[in-house]
Structures are given as structure tokens and as C-alpha cells.
Write a structure and sequence with these properties.
InterPro entries: QatB. With 287 residues, the chain is mainly alpha-helical. It has one domain. Helices cover 58% and strands 0% of the residues. The protein has 10 helices and no strands. The N terminus is likely disordered.
Length: 287
């Protein structure tokens, strides 16, 4: 929602985990011959199996979450039980669980890791030194919102696919939110403020992923703009509460994240957030 570009949602038979996630397009299998044409064919390793095509998922797996979210939106945000069922169903049925929901975050995982890596580096070595890594040291001393605009192509490279678009638009939404959080004019920040920035990003990324998967074009939103914004805010607040709890848990086990740990840390936050969303959704549905 927000500035995210809506589309009709993925086809129902799209695999739960897209085949391109986690792939390494630059590698090629070793032929085993090392350029020796006389190598014994019988001693050569068997050719690698052809990549398997992911099995088509249940074509109806988005429908329950979509219908529940439509009921929630149609109520103007008063039907919290339908919101709970929509979010819980998205995690458990549409995505296949918290771990697979995390894998579906795709480009938002990498962008989140790059953002958190930059924030951690700036906190440890200072903004100028961190910006030198991107040849942007001239931006040191500028408000953090301007710094983030300059970093956009480094944090979120590419926007040619829906997945990349989600990552970039979540980043843009985060920059917009900096003013509301009182962070836009800073030229440095505390560890707590650093976590707030990442929390905002992860919240927007999860919200955009859910809304694009469910298919915002087929979810009926209230015609009243103020009520529609209230519906969006309730969903965002619901997600942010889960992200905040997940980040707190992750920091308890890994208070100081190194650059080599940052992607696994981000994945742990996403997975924990989806697990918490499932539990919160079930609790809302039971009320």
C-alpha cells in the first residue's frame, strides 16, 4: 500500500518459493576434463541433473487471505478478526510458513541487509567513513534523509521486477517516514535510532509483500479516502508491532551484528516477525 505499485497478485499456481530465489546465475558446473580431450569418458562425473521445475502450488492458496482482508477493508478497519485471519492465513497457507514467507521476501532481504550493514558501519566508524565505501563522503554532515536518497541505488539496485520494486518502494517509504520519526535532520544516530530505521524498512517491505501477493487490485477498499488510510494504518501498525518484537528478540541474541552476520540477522528478524504475525493473527481471530 502507500506508494507501492499495485498489481493483480501472483497467479495461484506460482510456486511458493520462486525458482530464482537463492540461485547463483554466474556459476557453471565443472566439466571435469580440465581441457584434456583424452580424458576417459567412463571416469568423468555424471552430468548434473537438469534444474527441477518447482511444483505448482495450490491455485487457491491466496483466496482465503484475500477474502478476509476484503472483509476487513470493507468494515473500515473495525473487523479485526478478519484482519487476523487474513494475516495468519497468509503466513501459514499462502506462504507455507514463516520460513518460506521469509524466502519470498527476495530482494527485500538483500536490501534490508545492505541498509542494516550501512547503519551498523556508520554507527561504528562514523558517517563519513561509511559513506566513503560508496564514494559519497561528500554527503557527510547532510541530513540523514538526503544521505538515504543518495544511497538508494546502492541499497536497492534495480527495480525491473515486482520483487525489486517492493524493495525499492519500501526504502522510499522509509525515507518519507524519517520526518515523522524525528530522524530526517540527523547527520548521525544512536543504536536505538538505527534500529528504528531498519524496523521501518522491514515493516514496509513485509506490508508490500503481503499486499502484492494478495493482489491489491482485487481487494475492495473503502471509497472514503480517510477510511482507506485508516485501514492501511491498522495493517501497518499490526506488522510493525511484530517487526519490533522480532528485532528486540534478535538483538538479545546478537547485540552486535558484524558485516558477515548481517544477512542471517535480517532473515532471523523476518522469520521471527512472520511467526509473531501468525500468532497475533490467530489471537485476533479468536476474539
Amino acid at each position: 500500500m502507500g506508494t507501492s505499485t499495485a498489481y493483480g497478485g501472483p497467479g495461484g499456481d506460482t510456486p511458493l518459493i520462486p525458482s530464482w530465489l537463492g540461485s547463483d546465475p554466474g556459476s557453471e558446473p565443472d566439466s571435469g576434463q580440465d581441457g584434456d580431450p583424452s580424458a576417459d569418458p567412463d571416469s568423468l562425473p555424471a552430468p548434473p541433473d537438469k534444474p527441477s521445475i518447482p511444483q505448482a502450488a495450490d491455485p487457491q492458496r491466496f483466496s482465503v487471505a484475500r477474502n478476509n482482508f476484503t472483509r476487513f477493508a470493507g468494515s473500515g478497519g473495525s473487523d479485526r478478526a478478519s484482519l487476523g485471519r487474513a494475516v495468519s492465513g497468509y503466513v501459514s497457507t499462502s506462504s507455507g510458513g514463516a520460513r518460506q514467507a521469509t524466502q519470498r521476501m527476495g530482494a527485500s532481504r538483500g536490501a534490508g541487509a545492505r541498509l542494516l550493514g550501512f547503519l551498523s558501519d556508520a554507527n561504528a566508524r562514523g558517517m563519513r567513513e561509511a559513506l566513503k565505501e560508496f564514494n559519497l563522503d561528500s554527503m557527510a554532515g547532510r541530513p540523514i534523509s538526503e544521505v538515504f536518497v543518495a544511497l538508494a541505488d546502492h541499497i536497492c539496485p534495480g527495480a525491473g521486477t515486482v520483487d525489486e520494486g517492493i524493495a525499492r518502494e519500501a526504502y522510499i517509504e522509509t525515507i518519507i517516514d524519517l520526518a515523522d520519526q524525528g530522524l530526517a535532520a540527523l547527520d548521525t544516530f544512536s543504536p536505538e535510532q538505527m534500529d528504528t530505521v531498519f524496523e521501518l524498512y522491514a515493516t514496509h517491505a513485509i506490508e508490500a509483500r503481503i499486499c502484492n501477493d494478495i493482489g491489491t487490485k482485487v481487494v475492495t477498499m473503502p471509497s472514503n479516502v480517510q477510511i482507506a488510510h485508516q485501514v492501511e494504518k491498522q495493517l501497518r501498525d499490526f506488522i510493525r508491532g511484530a517487526v519490533s518484537d522480532a528485532l528486540t528478540r534478535a538483538r538479545e541474541s546478537t547485540p552486535n551484528v558484524t558485516q558477515t552476520q548481517v544477512l542471517s540477522f535480517v532473515d532471523s528478524v523476518y522469520e521471527s516477525a512472520f511467526s509473531i504475525l501468525k500468532s497475533l493473527g490467530d489471537a485476533e481471530a479468536d476474539q
